[in-house]
Structure to design on (430 residues):
Protein backbone atom coordinates (compact mmCIF):
# COMPACT_ATOMS: atom_id res chain seq x y z
CA UNK A 1 0.00 0.00 0.00
CA UNK A 2 1.41 3.35 -0.88
CA UNK A 3 1.39 6.03 1.72
CA UNK A 4 -0.62 9.19 1.27
CA UNK A 5 1.18 12.31 0.17
CA UNK A 6 0.64 15.97 0.14
CA UNK A 7 0.47 17.19 -3.44
CA UNK A 8 1.68 20.70 -3.89
CA UNK A 9 -0.64 22.53 -6.29
CA UNK A 10 0.96 23.43 -9.58
CA UNK A 11 1.55 27.12 -10.25
CA UNK A 12 -1.60 28.77 -11.41
CA UNK A 13 -3.75 26.74 -9.09
CA UNK A 14 -6.04 23.90 -10.01
CA UNK A 15 -4.27 21.30 -7.88
CA UNK A 16 -2.23 18.40 -9.10
CA UNK A 17 -2.34 17.36 -12.72
CA UNK A 18 -4.05 13.97 -12.93
CA UNK A 19 -1.70 12.75 -15.67
CA UNK A 20 -1.28 9.33 -14.12
CA UNK A 21 -4.98 8.61 -14.05
CA UNK A 22 -6.00 9.63 -17.52
CA UNK A 23 -6.58 7.47 -20.57
CA UNK A 24 -4.71 7.97 -23.81
CA UNK A 25 -7.11 10.46 -25.40
CA UNK A 26 -7.51 12.48 -22.21
CA UNK A 27 -3.74 12.60 -21.77
CA UNK A 28 -3.24 13.58 -25.42
CA UNK A 29 -5.81 16.35 -25.00
CA UNK A 30 -4.10 17.52 -21.81
CA UNK A 31 -0.69 17.51 -23.49
CA UNK A 32 -2.01 19.40 -26.52
CA UNK A 33 -3.59 21.98 -24.25
CA UNK A 34 -0.19 22.54 -22.64
CA UNK A 35 1.51 22.72 -26.03
CA UNK A 36 -0.81 25.54 -27.01
CA UNK A 37 -0.26 27.41 -23.73
CA UNK A 38 2.52 30.04 -24.10
CA UNK A 39 2.98 30.06 -20.31
CA UNK A 40 4.30 26.50 -20.47
CA UNK A 41 7.36 27.55 -22.48
CA UNK A 42 9.58 28.61 -19.59
CA UNK A 43 13.36 28.19 -19.26
CA UNK A 44 13.58 24.63 -17.95
CA UNK A 45 10.96 23.34 -20.41
CA UNK A 46 12.66 25.14 -23.31
CA UNK A 47 15.92 23.48 -22.35
CA UNK A 48 14.25 20.05 -22.54
CA UNK A 49 12.76 20.97 -25.95
CA UNK A 50 16.24 21.96 -27.19
CA UNK A 51 17.71 18.68 -25.93
CA UNK A 52 14.86 16.71 -27.49
CA UNK A 53 15.36 18.30 -30.90
CA UNK A 54 19.11 17.71 -30.63
CA UNK A 55 18.82 14.03 -29.70
CA UNK A 56 15.82 13.23 -31.92
CA UNK A 57 16.73 15.16 -35.04
CA UNK A 58 20.10 16.87 -35.20
CA UNK A 59 22.13 13.98 -33.84
CA UNK A 60 20.75 11.54 -36.43
CA UNK A 61 20.79 13.77 -39.52
CA UNK A 62 23.89 12.11 -41.10
CA UNK A 63 22.56 8.56 -40.63
CA UNK A 64 19.08 9.59 -41.68
CA UNK A 65 20.39 11.37 -44.79
CA UNK A 66 22.31 8.24 -45.79
CA UNK A 67 19.20 6.11 -45.24
CA UNK A 68 17.10 8.49 -47.38
CA UNK A 69 19.76 8.58 -50.10
CA UNK A 70 19.95 4.79 -50.37
CA UNK A 71 16.16 4.44 -50.27
CA UNK A 72 15.73 7.14 -52.90
CA UNK A 73 18.27 5.59 -55.24
CA UNK A 74 16.77 2.12 -54.88
CA UNK A 75 13.16 3.27 -55.34
CA UNK A 76 14.02 5.62 -58.19
CA UNK A 77 16.00 3.02 -60.11
CA UNK A 78 13.31 0.35 -59.60
CA UNK A 79 10.43 2.62 -60.59
CA UNK A 80 12.39 4.21 -63.45
CA UNK A 81 13.46 0.86 -64.92
CA UNK A 82 10.00 -0.66 -64.52
CA UNK A 83 8.28 2.36 -66.08
CA UNK A 84 10.72 2.25 -68.99
CA UNK A 85 10.02 -1.46 -69.55
CA UNK A 86 6.30 -0.78 -69.70
CA UNK A 87 6.65 2.30 -71.89
CA UNK A 88 5.50 4.61 -69.10
CA UNK A 89 8.74 6.46 -68.57
CA UNK A 90 7.05 9.82 -69.07
CA UNK A 91 5.22 9.16 -65.81
CA UNK A 92 8.20 7.81 -63.90
CA UNK A 93 9.28 11.10 -62.39
CA UNK A 94 5.83 11.96 -61.06
CA UNK A 95 5.42 8.42 -59.77
CA UNK A 96 8.74 8.50 -57.91
CA UNK A 97 8.18 11.95 -56.46
CA UNK A 98 4.67 11.09 -55.29
CA UNK A 99 5.74 7.75 -53.86
CA UNK A 100 8.79 9.08 -52.05
CA UNK A 101 7.82 12.56 -50.96
CA UNK A 102 4.15 12.14 -50.18
CA UNK A 103 4.01 8.56 -48.91
CA UNK A 104 7.21 6.67 -48.18
CA UNK A 105 9.42 9.32 -46.60
CA UNK A 106 6.91 10.67 -44.04
CA UNK A 107 6.00 7.08 -43.09
CA UNK A 108 9.58 5.86 -42.84
CA UNK A 109 10.65 8.98 -40.94
CA UNK A 110 7.91 8.30 -38.38
CA UNK A 111 9.00 4.66 -38.11
CA UNK A 112 12.67 5.71 -37.86
CA UNK A 113 11.98 8.21 -35.07
CA UNK A 114 9.48 5.86 -33.42
CA UNK A 115 12.00 3.04 -33.27
CA UNK A 116 14.80 5.24 -32.04
CA UNK A 117 13.25 7.98 -29.94
CA UNK A 118 9.77 6.61 -29.20
CA UNK A 119 11.17 3.44 -27.64
CA UNK A 120 13.71 5.44 -25.62
CA UNK A 121 11.03 7.87 -24.47
CA UNK A 122 8.71 5.02 -23.47
CA UNK A 123 11.49 3.39 -21.45
CA UNK A 124 12.56 6.61 -19.78
CA UNK A 125 9.04 7.61 -18.76
CA UNK A 126 8.30 4.06 -17.54
CA UNK A 127 11.42 4.15 -15.35
CA UNK A 128 10.54 7.62 -14.11
CA UNK A 129 7.12 6.29 -13.16
CA UNK A 130 8.49 3.11 -11.53
CA UNK A 131 11.14 5.04 -9.54
CA UNK A 132 8.64 7.65 -8.31
CA UNK A 133 10.58 10.43 -10.05
CA UNK A 134 7.39 11.90 -11.51
CA UNK A 135 5.69 11.84 -8.13
CA UNK A 136 8.75 13.44 -6.53
CA UNK A 137 8.60 16.28 -9.06
CA UNK A 138 4.91 16.77 -8.49
CA UNK A 139 5.41 16.89 -4.72
CA UNK A 140 7.85 19.78 -5.03
CA UNK A 141 5.45 21.71 -7.24
CA UNK A 142 6.91 20.88 -10.65
CA UNK A 143 4.21 19.78 -13.07
CA UNK A 144 5.54 16.66 -14.87
CA UNK A 145 3.30 17.30 -17.89
CA UNK A 146 4.78 20.77 -18.33
CA UNK A 147 8.37 19.93 -17.45
CA UNK A 148 8.83 16.38 -18.73
CA UNK A 149 6.14 15.50 -21.27
CA UNK A 150 5.20 18.68 -23.14
CA UNK A 151 8.82 19.46 -24.15
CA UNK A 152 9.30 15.90 -25.41
CA UNK A 153 6.10 16.09 -27.45
CA UNK A 154 6.99 19.49 -28.94
CA UNK A 155 10.64 18.57 -29.57
CA UNK A 156 9.78 15.14 -30.96
CA UNK A 157 7.06 16.48 -33.25
CA UNK A 158 9.30 19.25 -34.57
CA UNK A 159 12.01 16.64 -35.14
CA UNK A 160 9.69 14.40 -37.18
CA UNK A 161 8.48 17.35 -39.27
CA UNK A 162 12.05 18.61 -39.73
CA UNK A 163 13.45 15.21 -40.66
CA UNK A 164 10.59 14.69 -43.11
CA UNK A 165 11.45 18.01 -44.78
CA UNK A 166 15.16 17.14 -44.88
CA UNK A 167 14.33 13.72 -46.33
CA UNK A 168 12.14 15.22 -49.04
CA UNK A 169 14.81 17.74 -50.05
CA UNK A 170 17.48 15.02 -50.27
CA UNK A 171 15.13 12.73 -52.18
CA UNK A 172 14.17 15.42 -54.69
CA UNK A 173 17.81 16.29 -55.31
CA UNK A 174 18.72 12.66 -55.91
CA UNK A 175 15.67 12.00 -58.05
CA UNK A 176 16.63 14.99 -60.17
CA UNK A 177 20.15 13.66 -60.62
CA UNK A 178 19.06 10.10 -61.35
CA UNK A 179 16.09 10.69 -63.65
CA UNK A 180 16.80 14.01 -65.25
CA UNK A 181 20.50 14.56 -64.82
CA UNK A 182 22.68 11.55 -65.45
CA UNK A 183 20.65 8.95 -67.29
CA UNK A 184 20.77 8.48 -71.05
CA UNK A 185 16.97 8.27 -71.02
CA UNK A 186 16.63 11.65 -69.30
CA UNK A 187 13.42 13.59 -69.52
CA UNK A 188 13.35 16.87 -71.44
CA UNK A 189 14.69 19.83 -69.44
CA UNK A 190 12.02 21.64 -67.47
CA UNK A 191 9.96 18.56 -66.73
CA UNK A 192 11.33 18.20 -63.23
CA UNK A 193 10.07 21.60 -62.10
CA UNK A 194 6.68 21.04 -63.70
CA UNK A 195 6.26 17.62 -62.14
CA UNK A 196 7.33 18.78 -58.68
CA UNK A 197 4.95 21.72 -58.94
CA UNK A 198 2.14 19.37 -59.96
CA UNK A 199 2.81 16.87 -57.17
CA UNK A 200 3.21 19.49 -54.45
CA UNK A 201 -0.08 21.26 -54.96
CA UNK A 202 -1.58 23.10 -51.99
CA UNK A 203 -3.95 20.26 -50.97
CA UNK A 204 -1.14 17.70 -51.19
CA UNK A 205 1.18 19.91 -49.13
CA UNK A 206 -1.56 20.42 -46.55
CA UNK A 207 -2.13 16.69 -46.20
CA UNK A 208 1.62 16.03 -46.16
CA UNK A 209 2.39 18.39 -43.27
CA UNK A 210 -0.73 17.44 -41.32
CA UNK A 211 0.39 13.84 -41.68
CA UNK A 212 3.92 14.69 -40.52
CA UNK A 213 2.52 16.52 -37.47
CA UNK A 214 0.19 13.61 -36.70
CA UNK A 215 3.13 11.20 -36.99
CA UNK A 216 5.18 13.45 -34.70
CA UNK A 217 2.44 13.54 -32.09
CA UNK A 218 1.97 9.77 -32.34
CA UNK A 219 5.67 8.92 -31.87
CA UNK A 220 5.79 11.05 -28.72
CA UNK A 221 2.37 10.95 -27.08
CA UNK A 222 1.84 7.18 -27.41
CA UNK A 223 5.17 6.12 -25.85
CA UNK A 224 4.80 8.71 -23.07
CA UNK A 225 1.26 7.55 -22.31
CA UNK A 226 2.41 3.92 -22.23
CA UNK A 227 5.26 4.90 -19.90
CA UNK A 228 3.00 6.81 -17.53
CA UNK A 229 0.58 3.87 -17.36
CA UNK A 230 3.34 1.49 -16.20
CA UNK A 231 2.62 -0.20 -12.87
CA UNK A 232 5.30 0.59 -10.28
CA UNK A 233 7.19 -2.67 -10.66
CA UNK A 234 10.47 -2.91 -12.55
CA UNK A 235 9.33 -6.11 -14.26
CA UNK A 236 6.65 -4.09 -16.08
CA UNK A 237 9.15 -1.80 -17.84
CA UNK A 238 9.72 -4.06 -20.89
CA UNK A 239 5.98 -4.79 -21.08
CA UNK A 240 5.29 -1.06 -21.11
CA UNK A 241 7.71 -0.53 -24.02
CA UNK A 242 6.26 -3.50 -25.89
CA UNK A 243 2.72 -2.15 -25.53
CA UNK A 244 3.75 1.36 -26.43
CA UNK A 245 5.55 0.26 -29.57
CA UNK A 246 2.68 -1.95 -30.77
CA UNK A 247 0.22 0.90 -30.23
CA UNK A 248 2.57 3.27 -31.99
CA UNK A 249 2.85 1.09 -35.09
CA UNK A 250 -0.91 0.60 -35.25
CA UNK A 251 -1.40 4.37 -34.90
CA UNK A 252 1.18 5.13 -37.61
CA UNK A 253 -0.58 2.77 -40.01
CA UNK A 254 -3.96 4.30 -39.16
CA UNK A 255 -2.63 7.81 -39.79
CA UNK A 256 -1.11 6.66 -43.08
CA UNK A 257 -4.41 5.09 -44.13
CA UNK A 258 -6.47 8.11 -43.12
CA UNK A 259 -4.21 10.59 -44.89
CA UNK A 260 -4.21 8.39 -47.97
CA UNK A 261 -7.99 8.64 -48.04
CA UNK A 262 -7.83 12.36 -47.27
CA UNK A 263 -5.32 12.83 -50.11
CA UNK A 264 -7.73 11.22 -52.54
CA UNK A 265 -10.66 13.34 -51.29
CA UNK A 266 -8.86 16.69 -51.49
CA UNK B 1 1.31 9.92 18.26
CA UNK B 2 5.05 9.32 18.45
CA UNK B 3 6.43 7.36 21.39
CA UNK B 4 8.69 10.29 22.18
CA UNK B 5 9.78 13.58 20.74
CA UNK B 6 12.58 15.94 21.59
CA UNK B 7 14.40 18.92 20.23
CA UNK B 8 17.81 18.28 18.75
CA UNK B 9 19.41 21.49 17.59
CA UNK B 10 17.12 22.92 14.90
CA UNK B 11 15.30 19.59 14.62
CA UNK B 12 12.30 18.06 16.29
CA UNK B 13 12.88 14.34 16.45
CA UNK B 14 9.76 12.17 16.55
CA UNK B 15 10.50 8.65 17.67
CA UNK B 16 8.09 6.02 16.41
CA UNK B 17 7.48 2.40 17.22
CA UNK B 18 6.24 1.06 13.91
CA UNK B 19 5.95 1.74 10.20
CA UNK B 20 2.17 2.04 10.54
CA UNK B 21 2.66 4.81 13.08
CA UNK B 22 5.07 6.54 10.71
CA UNK B 23 2.59 6.36 7.82
CA UNK B 24 -0.16 7.75 9.99
CA UNK B 25 2.01 10.65 11.07
CA UNK B 26 2.92 11.43 7.48
CA UNK B 27 -0.76 11.33 6.50
CA UNK B 28 -1.66 13.69 9.34
CA UNK B 29 0.76 16.36 8.08
CA UNK B 30 -0.03 16.92 4.43
CA UNK B 31 1.58 20.37 4.62
CA UNK B 32 5.01 18.87 5.33
CA UNK B 33 7.47 18.50 2.45
CA UNK B 34 9.17 15.14 2.67
CA UNK B 35 12.81 14.22 2.33
CA UNK B 36 12.60 10.49 1.89
CA UNK B 37 14.33 7.60 0.16
CA UNK B 38 11.04 6.91 -1.64
CA UNK B 39 11.14 10.17 -3.63
CA UNK B 40 14.32 10.27 -5.71
CA UNK B 41 16.03 13.04 -7.59
CA UNK B 42 15.33 13.33 -11.31
CA UNK B 43 18.02 11.05 -12.69
CA UNK B 44 18.86 12.97 -15.85
CA UNK B 45 19.15 16.32 -14.10
CA UNK B 46 22.20 17.54 -12.21
CA UNK B 47 21.98 18.33 -8.51
CA UNK B 48 21.86 22.03 -9.35
CA UNK B 49 19.02 21.52 -11.85
CA UNK B 50 17.08 19.33 -9.42
CA UNK B 51 17.08 22.20 -6.94
CA UNK B 52 16.72 25.06 -9.43
CA UNK B 53 13.56 23.73 -11.09
CA UNK B 54 11.69 24.28 -7.83
CA UNK B 55 12.00 28.10 -7.66
CA UNK B 56 11.66 28.26 -11.42
CA UNK B 57 8.35 26.39 -11.47
CA UNK B 58 6.97 27.35 -8.07
CA UNK B 59 7.90 31.01 -7.98
CA UNK B 60 8.36 31.75 -11.66
CA UNK B 61 12.01 32.75 -11.21
CA UNK B 62 14.18 33.05 -14.30
CA UNK B 63 16.48 30.08 -15.04
CA UNK B 64 19.54 32.17 -14.12
CA UNK B 65 18.07 33.41 -10.85
CA UNK B 66 16.89 29.90 -9.94
CA UNK B 67 20.35 28.47 -10.67
CA UNK B 68 22.01 31.19 -8.59
CA UNK B 69 19.66 30.46 -5.70
CA UNK B 70 20.31 26.70 -5.94
CA UNK B 71 24.03 27.35 -6.12
CA UNK B 72 23.92 29.58 -3.04
CA UNK B 73 22.08 26.87 -1.07
CA UNK B 74 24.70 24.29 -2.05
CA UNK B 75 27.48 26.66 -1.00
CA UNK B 76 25.85 27.30 2.35
CA UNK B 77 26.00 23.64 3.27
CA UNK B 78 29.41 23.07 1.67
CA UNK B 79 28.25 20.86 -1.19
CA UNK B 80 28.90 23.13 -4.18
CA UNK B 81 31.31 20.55 -5.59
CA UNK B 82 28.50 18.15 -6.45
CA UNK B 83 26.38 20.75 -8.29
CA UNK B 84 26.99 19.24 -11.73
CA UNK B 85 26.71 15.58 -10.71
CA UNK B 86 23.79 13.31 -11.50
CA UNK B 87 22.06 11.05 -9.01
CA UNK B 88 23.96 7.81 -9.77
CA UNK B 89 27.27 9.62 -9.20
CA UNK B 90 26.33 10.94 -5.76
CA UNK B 91 27.36 9.63 -2.35
CA UNK B 92 24.58 9.09 0.18
CA UNK B 93 25.50 12.38 1.86
CA UNK B 94 25.45 14.33 -1.41
CA UNK B 95 22.13 12.75 -2.40
CA UNK B 96 20.65 13.66 0.97
CA UNK B 97 21.93 17.21 0.61
CA UNK B 98 20.32 17.51 -2.83
CA UNK B 99 16.99 16.15 -1.63
CA UNK B 100 17.03 18.39 1.42
CA UNK B 101 17.78 21.48 -0.67
CA UNK B 102 15.05 20.54 -3.15
CA UNK B 103 12.65 20.58 -0.20
CA UNK B 104 14.18 23.77 1.24
CA UNK B 105 13.80 25.52 -2.12
CA UNK B 106 10.04 25.30 -1.61
CA UNK B 107 10.49 27.40 1.55
CA UNK B 108 8.05 25.14 3.38
CA UNK B 109 6.69 25.59 6.88
CA UNK B 110 7.60 22.00 7.74
CA UNK B 111 10.28 19.73 6.30
CA UNK B 112 9.84 16.11 7.23
CA UNK B 113 12.95 13.95 7.05
CA UNK B 114 11.63 10.43 6.85
CA UNK B 115 13.85 7.75 8.41
CA UNK B 116 17.26 9.41 7.95
CA UNK B 117 18.91 6.03 8.54
CA UNK B 118 17.63 4.94 5.12
CA UNK B 119 18.96 8.09 3.49
CA UNK B 120 22.33 8.12 5.26
CA UNK B 121 23.18 4.46 5.95
CA UNK B 122 26.93 5.06 6.38
CA UNK B 123 26.79 8.23 8.45
CA UNK B 124 26.20 9.06 12.09
CA UNK B 125 23.31 11.11 10.87
CA UNK B 126 22.03 13.17 13.84
CA UNK B 127 24.99 15.58 13.98
CA UNK B 128 25.27 15.54 10.18
CA UNK B 129 21.63 16.57 9.69
CA UNK B 130 21.82 19.05 12.56
CA UNK B 131 24.82 20.81 11.04
CA UNK B 132 23.24 20.93 7.60
CA UNK B 133 19.99 22.42 8.88
CA UNK B 134 21.83 24.91 11.06
CA UNK B 135 23.55 26.17 7.89
CA UNK B 136 20.14 26.62 6.25
CA UNK B 137 18.56 28.53 9.12
CA UNK B 138 15.87 30.93 7.93
CA UNK B 139 15.05 29.02 4.75
CA UNK B 140 12.25 26.95 6.27
CA UNK B 141 9.90 26.88 9.26
CA UNK B 142 10.42 23.66 11.18
CA UNK B 143 12.18 20.41 10.46
CA UNK B 144 10.89 17.15 11.83
CA UNK B 145 12.82 13.92 11.77
CA UNK B 146 10.83 10.70 11.79
CA UNK B 147 12.93 7.98 13.33
CA UNK B 148 12.34 4.76 15.20
CA UNK B 149 12.62 4.51 18.97
CA UNK B 150 15.45 2.02 18.71
CA UNK B 151 17.57 4.74 17.11
CA UNK B 152 17.15 7.09 20.09
CA UNK B 153 20.68 6.44 21.42
CA UNK B 154 22.05 7.97 18.22
CA UNK B 155 20.87 11.39 19.45
CA UNK B 156 23.21 11.94 22.40
CA UNK B 157 22.68 15.65 22.84
CA UNK B 158 18.92 15.84 22.97
CA UNK B 159 17.85 18.94 24.87
CA UNK B 160 14.36 18.11 26.01
CA UNK B 161 12.23 15.04 25.92
CA UNK B 162 8.56 14.21 26.05
CA UNK B 163 6.83 10.88 25.97
CA UNK B 164 3.30 10.08 25.04
Amino acid sequence: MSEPHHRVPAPGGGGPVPWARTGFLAFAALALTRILSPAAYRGAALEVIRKQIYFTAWQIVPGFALFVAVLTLVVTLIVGATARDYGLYAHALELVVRLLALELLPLLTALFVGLRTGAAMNTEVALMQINNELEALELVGVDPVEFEFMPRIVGGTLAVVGLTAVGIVIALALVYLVIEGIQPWSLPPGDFGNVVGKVFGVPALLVLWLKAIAFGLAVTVIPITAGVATPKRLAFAPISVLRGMVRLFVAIMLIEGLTLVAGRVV
Amino acid sequence: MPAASFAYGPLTVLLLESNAERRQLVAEHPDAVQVTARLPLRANLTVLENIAIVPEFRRGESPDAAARYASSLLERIGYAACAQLHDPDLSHEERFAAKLLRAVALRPSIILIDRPGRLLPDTHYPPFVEAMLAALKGEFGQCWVLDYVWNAPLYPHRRSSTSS
